[in-house]
Structure formats: C-alpha cells, structure tokens
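Limitations
The structure tokens in this dataset are predictions for the assembled complex, not deposited experimental models. Users should treat interface geometry with appropriate caution, especially where small molecules or nucleic acid strands are included. An illustrative entry is reproduced here so readers can see what is and is not provided.
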Amino acid sequence: MLLIECPWCGPRDEQEFGYGGEAHIVRPADPHALDDAAWGEYLFMRTNRKGAHRERWVHSEGCRRWFNVVRDTVSHEILAVYRVGEAPPAAGRRGE
Amino acid sequence: MSEQPFRLFAGGRVDRERPLDFVWAGRRLQGYAGDTLASALLANGIHLVGRSFKYHRPRGILSAGAEEPNALVQLERGARTQPNLRATQVELYAGLHAEPQNCWPSLELDVGAINGLVSRLLPAGFYYKTFMWPRDGWMVYERFIRRAAGLGRAPSEGPDPDVYDKMHVHCDVLVVGAGPAGLAAALAAGASGARVILADEQSEPGGSLLATRETLDGEPAARWVERALADLGAMDEVRVLPRTTVFGYHDHNYLTLAERVTDHLPPGSAPDRPRQRLWKVRAREVVLATGAHERPMVFAQNDRPGIMLAGAARTYVNRYGVRPADRALVVAADDGAYAAAVDLADVGVEVTVVDVRAQAPACAEQARARSIEVLAGHGVVRTFGGSRVRAAEVAPLDGTGAGWAGGARTLRCDLVAMCGGWNPTVHLFSQSGGRLAWNAERACFVPAEARQRVRVAGAANGTFSLAAALTEGRAGGDAAARAAGFSGGADVALPAAEEGAEPAPTRALWSLPTRPPGGAPAKHFVDFQNDVTANDVALAAREGYRSVEHLKRYTTTGMGTDQGKTSNVNALGILAGLLGREVPEVGTTTFRPPYTPVTFGVLAGRDVGALADPVRTTPMHRWHVAQGARFEDVGQWKRPWYYPRPGESMHDAVSRECLAARNAVALLDASTLGKIEVRGPDAGELLDRIYTNGFKKLPVGRCRYGLMCREDGMVLDDGVSARLADDRFLVHTTTGNAARVLAWLEEWRQTEWPELRVWCDSVTEQWATASLSGPFARRLLGELTRDIDLDPEAFPFMAWRAGTVAGIPARVMRVSFTGEQSYEVSVGAGFGLALWTAIALAGERYGLTPFGTETMHVLRAEKGFIIAGQDTDGTVTPHDLGLGAMVARHKDFIGKRSLARADTLRADRKQLVGLRTDDPREVLPEGGQIVARAGGRPPVPMLGHVTSSYWSANLGHSIALALVKGGHARLGESLVVQLPQRSVPVTVVAPTFLDPDGERMRG
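Predicted assembly:
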C-alpha cells in the first residue's frame, strides 16, 4: 500500500485516497470543433507510461481535495506531489 | 497412553514436568510443553503423517518449520477446524486433536494409492492433456479428481467462534526474524532509541540458536538469547512479537504480520484475548533476518517417511529432545549435513554419511572422530520401505554426477537426513521488489539490489557462519536506525562465537542419476506437496515449457500451500541442466504474499457480522420497525420495502399499497435520497455544465428534473434540483449514487474549473423527508399547514415552498416520482419522526397508507420513470432512454460531444421500451434475455434484456421495462423473452403505461 503525501493533510495510507488517472488532460475548450477521432483521443487515449507518470489523486477520506502525483510506475516510488494548478516539478518530466 | 519411546532423557527446550495429552488420527498420545505436533509425533515414533496429493504415497515429516510440504494436518473439529496446518508449526497444547488429510479410509490403508499404480496416466500437465475432451468433460472429471486429490476441509459449521484483532502501527525499524542476526539487529537498533518491532514466527525467539549446540561466550547459545531478550525488554521503544509471521512485504515499506495470540492454547481457553491479530506496519526501515531453508536432495524414492532434512533432524534432537531414529544415513551436498551427523551420533544414533562431493570436507573430521563412516563421492541410488524407510542403496558417482561409477551397497537405516544446500529465505525481500543474484559457491539465490528501504542480514543474505551473521545483523540494525535518524547502536556488544572450519563449496547436483545400476528408473521427487518428479520437469522441458513461469504452471511445481519453499530451486536447477544453461539464466518465479497461509479470520478482524459495513437508518426508522415493515438494503441504507399486514404476502401488501397511492393517499420515507447543496455565485453555471438540460435560468422557488452524463455520453444519474436562492441549489441524487455524484461535482469543480466560485456539500443526513402521493395528498397536507398556500395556481407542479408543516419549519416540494399528485415535505432530521407521526395521525381519516420501495418501484414503472443503475447500466445515453428532449441544444455539458459520435448515433443501440406479456398475469424475471423468436440454433442473437418488471395492481396486468436493440422502432413488434425452460411471448410498447400526459401529477 502506497504512502501518499497529501499536499493539504500530510502522509496518509493509500486506502484514504481515490485514483483519478493521468493528470494534465485538458478538456477541449470547444468539444464540438473536434472530429470524432480527436474527441476519441481526448476521451479514451492515455499514455500508460513506464516510469515517471503524472497522475491525479483525491483524498476522498480526508480533505476531499484533488491533487497531482508523479509516481514511478515501475517502482511505485512517489517522486513529487503538487496541487492542482501548480506546474509539475522537474522530476515529473523525467523519462519524457 | 504412550511412553514417548523416542524421547531423550534430557536436553532440548521441552518441559518434561508438563506432559500434554493429545489425539492424532484417533490415537491418544502424549508430548511435552514446548513440543510442536511434529516433534511430539516423532517422540512417539510416528513418521507416517499423510498421503501425497496426486499418487497418495505415504509421506512423513520433512522439515521442522514453515517450509513443510508433507505434514499437513486438519486441526480440531467443528467450527474451529482448520485445514492444511503444518504439523511442524502447530504448538502442542493439552487436548489437541489433529487428523491426517488426503487419505481414505485411513492413513495406513489408503485406496487412493491406486493412483500410484496408474501414475503413468498422471504425468506433468495431465489436467491439460487428459481432461480437455469432450468439451464438457472437465465438469465431471473435476469433481472426481478434487475428491481423490484434495487437501483439508474448510469448516462446515459456523460462525467462527473466535475473535480477531487488527493493529495499525508505525515504527522506525522492523526486524523480521529473531535468530542471531535478527537479535543483533534489534539490539543495535534498539540501543539507538529507535522505535523497533522484532517479529518472529516461532513460539520463542532464538531461531537457529535453539536448534544447535553452538556456544556463544562459551555458554549454550540459548543463554545469550535470554540475555538479549532481557536487554530488549528493558528498552521502552522495542516491541518483541513472538508467534508472528511477517507474511507480506508491500509497497512503501508496508508490511503485514499475522500474530497467533492464543493458537498455542486449548481452543476457547482464553476468551479475553483474540485468537489472532493482524499487524499492519509502516516501517521507515526494515531488516530482514529470515534465515534459510535447507534443500532436499533429489534421488529415487526420496519421499518415504523417515526421510527428512538434515537440519530438521538436528532440530528435533537439540530443540525437542527427540531421537528420531536408531540408524541414520546422512546425505550431503553441503557441510551442513555434518553438524547433523555429529548431533545424531551424540544421542546414540548409528550414522553413515554419504557425500556427493568427491572430497570429504574439513568438517568431516568431527564425524570421523565419532567413528562415523564417511563415503565421499557417493550418492543414494534408491530407498526401500513402506510406512517408514528401512534401507537405502548407495553407490559411487561418476565424475559428472550423471551416472554411477560402481556397484551399489545396501545400508539399513530408519532415517535418511539430507542436506542439498541452503536457500536464503528471500521471499520477503523478493516481495519488496528486490533483485536476486546467484551465489555459485553456495549454490543459492541471495538478495542483491533492494528497491525499498530494506537490509538483509545473516543466513537470509547468504551469510551462514554464526559469527558473521551476528556482525552483519548488528551492522544492519545500526544502519537502519541511522537511516531513520538515530545513532549509537554500532557499539552494542556481541558474543563470541566458535570459529568453525572454512566451509567447502556446496555441490549443485540437482538430481542424482535417474537410473539405478541395472535397474528401472524410479520417481525422484522435486515437489513433495504437488507430487512433481524430476521426470515431470524433464517432460515439460521436452514439450517446450522452458520458461520457469510456464514450467511452474504446467508441472504445478511450487503451486502448493508451501509455495515451493523446498522445491523451487531444485526444479530450476534441473531445468537449467536440461536446457544446458546456468541457473541464474533460467531465473526464478515470482514470490508472492502470503509467505505462509493466513486465515480469513485474521484478515477480516472484527469487520464481520453487524460490523462488516455501517448501517444507515432514517430518523423515522423506529416507526417503520414498529409498523412491521420489511426492509431492503439500498447501499448502506435500510429502507422500508413494504409494510405487510397480518396474513398478507408481499404481493398482497404491495398491491394494496399501490392501489392506495393511486386512489387515496400514501406516504413514503424519502429521507435517503442523496442531497447536495451547491452554493456560490457560479452554482447555476456549474449545474449547467454538469446537467444535459439548463439550470442557470431556473427561477428561485422552482424545481427541475435533470440528467447527468459521463464524458462518454452515458447517463450517470438523474434527479430533481431546486433553486433555493440565486446562488444556491439543492441537488437530489439516486439514493445509492449520492457519494458518487458529490465526488463527480468535486472532480470537475476542482480540477477543470477551479475558477468557478461554487462549493458543494452533502446534506443528505441533515434532512428527513416524507413524501405524500395520491389524490388526497393536497387535502391531507392542507390540514397540517397554515402558512403554505397549496392552491395549484399558487403552488404549481415542480415548485417548492418554505413554511410550517405540523408546526415544524419545513420545505415542501411538488415533485412526483409516482406520477400522482405529490408533495415532498422535508424538515430538519431531528424533527423527522415528529413530522412523520403527525402526518400519520392526520392521515387516518384519508386512509393514509405507508408504502415502501417496492411499491415506489411499481408506481414509477407504471409511469416509465427510470431508476439510474437499474434501467441504465453505464451504456445508455439520454436518447436511448427516449429523453432526447432533455438534451440542450445551445449549451455544452459534460458528455454532449459524445452524443454526436458515430457509435452513439447508431439506430440499433439498445433503447428503453415497455414490454407487455401476451399472458397479462405473467411477470417476467428482471434480467430475462430478449430474442426475436423461440427456438433456433445457437448462437441466438440477443436483442436486449428486461430491466424492470412488476405486477401492476392498478392496471390489472404485468408491466416491464427493457433495453432492446433498435427498440424505439419496434413498437408493436412481437418478441420473446427466453427463460431457461420456456419462452414468453411479449409485445414491445411505449414505456409509459399510465397517464402518459401527466395529468394526475400536475393536477
């Protein structure tokens, strides 16, 4: 079980959190300007990265806040934690 | 009562002043406090303890610990019975009752041994080869095979009478294993002031020190163990957990431990304590001092009772005071065997040593000094005996070890003690993600690169000498404490250990020659628990199963409850030899938790029965109970299902409630409906983006039914929202979806639109809601309120008003899920019961009838109103539901773009329709599959399924809702609902069965 550092509450067990998939997928400003393929890309396609992966978590059984995590998908090491709206730290770009 | 004929007069850690009676296989026997079931059986001369899994061969006790593959027993009876326990780990207590497993009719006379005679029919992969034809045959074979080749039985009585606990703890250093290295590590870490947990699976700490005659500081090693424990006991931050198996090493140094608190006591004798306790430990640093498991040697008929690991024989002598035999043959590929030979000889056992290495090692001198014959360069050809080994043939090996270099001679023996080398217990290290490396000198895998914050010390690290293990343990404990921010443990004094001779390398002879000189080949067992032989491994390799993972699954090597602790490395070695590769090139299979099996009880802890899940009840619950309501679980809520009167069936009660709601007035507890307050200047904007229809322009005082979709266009939930103020909405959700919808709103609000000034709060439990439905609803409510104008002009359908009902401040909403004239009265939760009681009293003269969820479902289905999650399943769009009119054209919302995807526009999507059965009394089962016509050869195309189905007392016929391919274009079409034994003809109709224009609810 991961130990996740909530940027608002501090380190807590994974079971207090919900997983929200890949981070920084921005909803298109005008979805109707997209063709089916482009909309499908936004809706369904994810990078499934091996290594440093930026992903969303929510502290469901705590402060209920969403935040971002950079996690190594091989070792499960958490490389960084940052709030919504903050730029991903440099570590998050490792392996890109 | 037995005399314990094989018990030594003195020695060992058993208490001869405390004899314990126990029952094994129906026989009353005696052992001593401090025994395991295995040592007590051996003291009584009992070696035959079970039958093997596949061939039902007689099997004995192989080991003295967690790695035991053979001696699996069924412990105790009734609700406390436990299968597959290792006799080598079951501590003896007074009155213990154990039975062997997997033998019928009895241990000595076993009809299943017939399998042994037909064993050529059961080669590697026999499941796959034999039973795959005819196609359905496996169903028949499986029952037979499982019975013939089963393990123990799960308890058939319940519930479990024992209590289990859980602990969640953090520590600086967790030390696993309390042998020499672990004790030294705990002393060093403890001296630094770090919070230390020392967990050990045995009944008392000490590990190998309790099983040898080695000395520390010139005294028996057990003395030092006592001193070390006293020192640890004096450290406030150190906790020692005996009888505690660390069974899982998970991510981020999270480890799971099972403590057997009272398993060593007679069942039920310690009612004030739990039986077992689960420890969930988050450790900053971990030191693994888990020791090593000895490897069996693979030779012909190496599985007879009386053939055991050399270290186990030594343990039974030294720790348990048992003389396991009169004449022993010790088979060595490693120096460890000589210590066993010496210890056996010193308690009067006549010993011969056979060493597969060409040269006897230096330590053989100790054996020769005791007149023990040492045959270097020899191996075991085969063994003889039935329920106990009685002789073995030995012969000189040729240089390669693949054949014999001379004739065999027969040695009489009633014990064969074998030492094929030692496997460091790397299970937890491997579970932690650590990489292993091959140590050629000692022919074993050792920990290499760690992935987590873990160190390994002692035999677990391939450090087999006592002095070195102590030093490494101390260094590991000190380094772990330092890494956790503590210091000062490096100077802890260590005892002086005897210096032994430099050990000779282990010979990696994975299998002795298959064929005896001039004889037919016999079975060389690799995996005792699953009856896998060297031949099976060879067959699998010939058939192309060359990856270890394939080999494991095809032959089932290592797939028993012992997870191959004694077999995996031998199987790898044999495979490597066949493939002409080195062992490390072949690699190992994955080690997975649990290290040894754990009970379901300890994992569940106290979260069973009423504590398995929280129960939520409404403020009116007491009234429902008093009225004899039957309840339905909706999520965690207990909702009244129906209110039977004396003598009424469910059908009668629901029909009566349905008629009352349409013809008089009826009352539903709607408190469980999810309620979310959405507040802020941008509240309307948020709802506009979430719902398919518009909310921004909804006037204060009005309500609107809304649908929300996921981004893929599929309906997520529905419900009515009321505008309480310009900047404040009350959003209702389906009862079971309340938490999900709140999370959905939060997700979008926080991650996509943080600029919106809006906040969401769950208020579900702040309100109690009584919902009145029926033609007399308005008149009844009128008697209870003076300050709310109920005139339909002043208070129209889909409006809400604040006022006083029965003297209680209330919010009243004119919304209807039943299709009747309906008012939902909400008051603060604390007033819920008072409101309800007042309504019930005032309603008496209107024939007010309480109704439950079943009637609610019937009434809403008569109107064709959906229930999200019942009539939808995450694959249904608003258009599929016939609710396309609710999809706004001139704004965007979550999921809108997806509604224009090619797939969501298909005409043959499953769409919501009504079904009428040709026979009006036939009520279809929900989930019933719909096809075009009866009969036909499979595969029959499925058109859809029934989602809701009821008897409608109001209409006098059954009604059903269904999702049907292209359903909207099929109105009037005849289809068939296919049931297991028959088919029911139906007609597709519009999903609204009653009052399609809604005059009743609007009136």
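Some entries come with short summary sentences. For this one: The longest strand of chain B covers residues 164-176.
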